[in-house]
Every structure is written in C-alpha cells, then in structure tokens.
C-alpha cells in the first residue's frame, strides 16, 4: 500500500465515515435505478405493440395517426427518446400518460397508497402469524404441529392466489357475510372523509370517522389476509429453518444447563439470533407485496399499482410503465437499506464493524 | 411449549377481533344506481375524442347531439338540440335551427354558437373519431367557412358533395357530434387547445346526468342534471364501479351490493338465470364477429378456398354453446337493425362441399395456415372450434395467441394469414361498415386509407365504386337496396367469413327497471331507471 493511499484512508476515517458510506450508497442506488430504466425501456420498445394505436385507436385516419406518432416523439432515435426521458425524470417529471394525458406522478400518487396499505396490513398479518408458527413448528419438529404447518405452508405457497381469492370471497363475503365485498370502501362511506395520505385506514382514523374506518377494515380484511397467508407460508418456513439451526447451537445447550427457562431460551436467545436473517426474508416478502399483486387486485377490484402497471403495459404506455418501475426499484432499494439498518440494531457485531 | 401455543392463540384472537365489526350488507342507496363494469378502456371524457364503449355510454347519458333516432326503429330520425333542418337544392348544405329554451348543466343557454363551436372543435382537434365528420369534406383549414353561424339559433353545414341525408344525420348522432358548452369550454382553454386538457376529465354537456368524477380504473360518478330539458331522471346519482372480474361482478350482484352487472359471460348467464332476484336483459348490438383471409397468402387468395372456409365453421353450435346468449348467427357485413341489413345466412357447416371446393382449388389434401387470435376467452374458444372443423377438411390451422394490441398491430401491417376479430360500427349508418368491408380505394402498401379490405389485401375497384355511389343516393329505399346487393356479392366473394352478431347482456336486480340496451353503446341509457 502506498503512503498516499494510507494517507487518504486516514483522512476518510477522520471525516465522518457516514459521508463516504452515503456517497457510495447513492451511487449504487442511482446506478441500480438507471439500469432498471434502461432494461424496462428496451423491453417496452421490443414488444410488438404499436403505442400510437393505443392512443388513437384502430379507426383513426392516417393524418391523425401520423400526428400522434410525432407527438409521442416516436420519430426520433431510441437513444434520444430515452435521454429525454431520463433528463426529465431526474427533475421529478415522469411525463404524462400516453393514454390519459395525466401526469404519471399524479397517477402513481393515486394508485400506490392502495397497494401500500394492502401490502402493509398483509405483511403485518404474515409476520404476526408466520414467525410464531415457524417457531412453534421448529420447537415441535417432526410432531403433528410441524406437519400441519408444513401443509398449510405448502398450500399457501402453491395454490393460485387468484383461486384462493375467489374462494375466500365466495365463503366469507357471499356465504357467511363476514367481510365486505371487493373494492376499498362502500359507496355510502366514499365521501365521508377527505383523502390526505391515500391510506384509508389512517385517513379515516385521523378524522375520527369510525364508521368509515370499520368499513375500510372490513374491505381490507380478506385481501390482506390472503396476502398475509401467502407471505406467512414463506416466513413460517424460513423461521422454522433458522430456528432449527439456532436451537442446535452450543449456546442453547449452555443455557439449558444453566437452567434458563425454556421460553427464555426460545424467544430471547434463539429467536434473537434467528431474527437477523429473518429481517431480510420479511423485507423481501414485503417488497414483493408492494409491487402490487395483479391477480389479487383484479379479483378484489383493488385500484393499486399492479393493475395500473398491467394496464399500462398492455397499452404500451411507456411513461407509465417506466414511472411504475422506478417506484418499485426505489422500494426495493429502500427496503434493502432498511433491513441493513435493522441489522445494526439487532446484531452488535455489525454495529461494531461499522 | 404452552407459551408458544398461547402466543399463537393471542395473535389469532387479536386479528379476529380487528376484523370482527363487519358484515352489514346494506342494499345500494335508493336514489343511486350502481353498475359494475370493466371501465379500464376509458381514456377521455371529451366528445371530440371518445371512441371507447364505456365512455360512449357515459356521454350518451350526459350529453346531447343535434339529432337522435328511435332505437327500436332506427330509420326514424328526430331533432334533439336541433328543432328542425333543411337540405339545400343541390343537397350539399344543411341548415339547422336550434331548439329554443334549452340549457347546459352550467345554466348557459344552448345556441347556434355552441353547435358550430363543437363541430369545428372536433374537426380541428382531429382525434380518433374526427373522421366521422371530416369524411364530408371538412378540414381544420376550411371548417370555419363550411360550418357557419347564420343567426343566434341557426347555422349552416356545407359539405363537398351531396351526401345521402340519412348518412349525414346518422353521423351527427355519434358522440363526436355531441354539443359542448362553448362558453364553459372556452373558459378552460389553454394555449389554443380548445379546452382539450380540461375536458378530458371535465364535463360541459346538457344531458340527463352530469359527470362529476372519473377516477381511472376505479369509478365514474354521475349526478342528475337539474337543467336537463327532458324528464328528470328518478336516480339522483349513477355510479360505475370498475370491477374487472366477471365472477366478482356476479357475487356483488347476488349480494345486492350493485344494481347491474355489465360484464356477464355465458357461464354467468347460466348461473344467474335460476336466481329469482336477478333478471337478465339483452339487446342486439352492432358488433360482428368475423375472420378474414389475407389475400397475400397464395392459398387464401384462391376464390374456392375463400368459399370453402365459409363452409368450415359450425355457426349454430358455436352460437348455442361457447357463445350462448351472447351472439346470433349473422353472415353479412351490415348488422341487423341497420338500414339495408341482409339477414340471410346461406352458410352452415358442410365438410363435403368444402372438400370439393378445396379439390377444385388444387388443395385436395388441405394446407397449413396460421390464425392470429386475441387471448380473450371468447375469441380463443371460437378459434379453437374453427380449428377443429377446418381439420375435418384437412386444413391445419395453427392458432397464434396474442394480446389485443399485439394482434391488431400485426393485422394492420398485413402480416397475418388469418385474423379473427370483432368489428363494431362507428355510427348508425350502413356506410360505416361498407366503408371498411367493401371499399379499398388503394391496395398499395403506402395507401393513405387502410380499411379492413386493405388489411386483407383484397383489391376491389368495382365494389369500391358501388359503395361510393351508395353514399350519394338521396332516396333511402334505393340506398337500402344498393346495400343489400352489395352484401350479397360480398357474402359470396369476399375473404371475410362473417359469423355472428353480438348481443349485449346485462344482469340486473329485479327491482331495477328501465335500463335500455340500445344498438350502439351511446344508446345504452339509464335515464329512466327506477328502483
């Protein structure tokens, strides 16, 4: 190592280490997102769909068609189109939807909270059940409970969510009337509160509209439970295997020898250690739900990101697709950062290293 | 391990408690009509741009045109915003007189100024449906001189040729001819856009209902228009909810959470017909299902092959099974209910006859060919049925599934062998379909106009002349006869295998009455609904 680089390193450590880390991080984030945009853009252009057709329809005259073609900038070379897009995106302008002419940002602000709310309730349910169930199965390895959990997990993981959704609606909504039907809220409650965050649970609760809040709960219960079940299946399996790994460690034997209460061994000693990889599993499941589950959204008429993106893709509405992809990219990067941060909280070794 | 079980039990109980306060199944409000429909096709609410099914229907209930027609007898045309009209001696100029005392929802009076502005605006904006008006010789440059105000309540509409009056009037019943509130729209103009940006989601009409809100892929909300000149609707509000899945629509309808389900498949019709609370209504629509043979394919270009294909579809079975309740067999390019529609169905499944024809064409052993198939359930099922019957005559049909826009892109580029699709008329006049099925003024790859005949590379100079002549025939009966003759010739020789005409089906709660299923989507009306 040259003297110069030693010097540089010394200075870097003198500066707040955080700064260097932040810079590195932003570079990674920017690069990831740019890559994402390039790939999405190219795929969008390779798809054999004429975007002009989506705008002017099948019947328009040639002059109408040609004008729309130029308006969309399709007469320019690909790299120019892409360059213009990125240039605008950097300043926070994602352009307008080719179809509706509405700013993409407005559309995203409208559809994303629906997905965020559903995914958040879903992941809470998934974690709340998945972790204890996984722990239980690990503790009772090979016993009946373990088998039941395994089967439930397999069903949750392999049954088409579309089919489970319809079945759920048929039973809980149509047959037993336990929950409200598809949609986010009943028409009669629609105008009882103002949309601030777009998360209906929070909006109605903050404005004290408890009738509307209950209605929103009853609407979200079924789709969120479904997503919750789906992520629970995965979280429980992973928890079980992490726990089995921890329970076989020597420190557990030591703890037992020392006479520590069994519940303390499981919930404090073992789970705490299993929690570190578990955070990643939960964060990734959450990110998966946040992309918007198209099928769930379709069955439950949930106006979220998944439906929006699918619809845009089918109409070759490239601005909308790129905007949505960007949001998903940011979610993934953000959740990765969050789980990194949680590592440092959970694992003293990581904390010390940084 | 009691504590673990306890934890799980508590978690279960918490969740159950959170979701418990539910389940009050209220019927829909008495003064509100709630319909479930897949409304993701809506891209605009501006009459100058709307061309999609859902938006056409919304405009049909919230705007008014100069003229209208009786939906049970379309040859009866009457004035709506126009009180009367006269045609000049040379047949080129219509003089319209606007009815006195009508108002827009905003309270502004309806005058000739509004009518002239609306028509000029549609032509200058030049969006998808503009051709319905520009076909009379209008362009952005000449329209100011050709459509002109002659008084507060009168204006002239001068065309380049003496078109059949029925054609002109039917075209004016299309949504692109709806009259907008010029004062209101002008107040929202920006950069000379004729208020386009605003009206895409706004409202400036005079119909029974006013559009209050459109949330894309979520809902469209309409409210009773207090200034409507006709009978006030019984419903104070009408709401469309976007429910993309037909099974979900059915559940909501059976539960009473919606009043009308608009997307009902053959399966749902079957299941709902036994429910005493539900009534199924239907009406004949103008859309026709067909498949067409690209004449660039040398096998398909043989007249005997074109004819054989028409004998290789089991029309009756498809209409009775896969498409039960959704179509009726129909084999001419003008749908029933149109002036001059031909209702004869000369073709049925006849494998022997088809084999003879193929042998005549030198293809006794059949041949292989592809069909671009849109990946919807209905189109796929029809295509598979055709695949089976074609196989009986040795034709190996390969289906290429694709998204709607994808198959259409290929079709428009004439890169297909066989395309299966559905065609809906653009306005109520026979010319709308004759123009595309029986006209091909220029068959070259660079043609300016690309009708369906062009897409299948079917070069028909003689037939094009006949179709052109029909447009200028002033006498309605003579005109009808021209179209009947044209369809007979088309039926025998064309590369279009026209199979069915669509029936639109809606399922409603028993107490919801007065919904009208009209021949075109802007005729579907809920103005008179009571419940």
Tell me what the structure shows.
The complex is a heterodimer of chains A (354) and B (531). Chain A is built from 16 helices and no strands. With 354 residues, chain A is an all-alpha fold. Chain A has two domains: 25-90, no CATH class; 104-353, MetI-like (MetI-like fold, Orthogonal Bundle), CATH 1.10.3720. In chain A, helix 2 (17-46) packs antiparallel against helix 15, helix 7 (144-158) crosses helix 10 (210-247) and helix 12 (262-290) packs antiparallel against helix 15 (318-346). The longest helix of chain A has 38 residues, at 210-247. Chain A starts with a helix and ends with a helix. In chain A, 40% of the residues are buried. Residues 1-12 of chain A have low confidence and may be disordered. Chain B has 531 residues and is α+β, with helices and mostly antiparallel strands. Chain B has helices at 2-19, 53-62, 112-125, 131-134, 143-146, 165-172, 182-187, 196-199, 246-255, 266-272, 303-310, 315-320, 351-360, 377-392, 404-412, 431-437, 452-455, 461-471, 476-493, and strands at 32-37, 67-70, 73-79, 82-87, 93-98, 147-149, 154-158, 209-215, 219-224, 237-242, 260-261, 278-293, 327-329, 368-374, 396-402, 418-423, 496-509. In chain B, strand 14 (368-374), helix 14 and strand 15 (396-402) form a beta-alpha-beta unit. The radius of gyration of chain B is 26 Å and the shape is globular. The N and C termini of chain B lie far apart (59 Å). Residues 19-25 of chain B have low confidence and may be disordered. Chains A and B meet through helix 3, helix 4, helix 6, helix 8 and helix 10 of A and helix 1, strand 10, helix 9 and helix 15 of B.
